[in-house]
Predict the structure.
Amino acid sequence: MDNWVERARSKGHEVMLSVPMEPQDYPRNDPGPNALLTMLPPERNMERLEWSLGKAVGYVGITSTTGSKFTANPDAVTPVVAAMKARGLMVLDARVNPRSVAGTLAGEAGVPRAFADRVIDRDLSRGAIDDQLAELETIAKANGAAVGIGAPYPSTIERINLWLTGLADRGIAIVPVSAVANMQKQ
């Protein structure tokens, strides 16, 4: 994984490490053997977090697109936020659950945080991705910043590359997620 992070950074990109966390429908939907789980004691989750954090270097923070149950549990999230603060890392709350407390708790603890305004590729059709990108533009113009997340699917990459070609003409700049840390309202 370090090679991917290194390649991304050499191209001027920031990297967020996606940490597996418990979804609402666990165990039917299992995010993996080292996922952070609400039923585990904090020490065990911290061991699992350390395992995930040790898989790469050079990332600026963490996120999770699986943790709909975990990120809504303040008792489970608080030690994770403390660990991010100790490491000087940020938290990107993917908001996979509208009741997620990850970003809010990070902000309260003084940890740089951002919120995903849109997951741009829940629907992989070109039109749906284009619609999400247009919504990000609207949000950015209204609020001064917007954060979108997506997976490296071919259709996602294709649509982003096309969208990027006219952004400057529309008054939008792409910046690293750390540049919008703490700018968004909770």
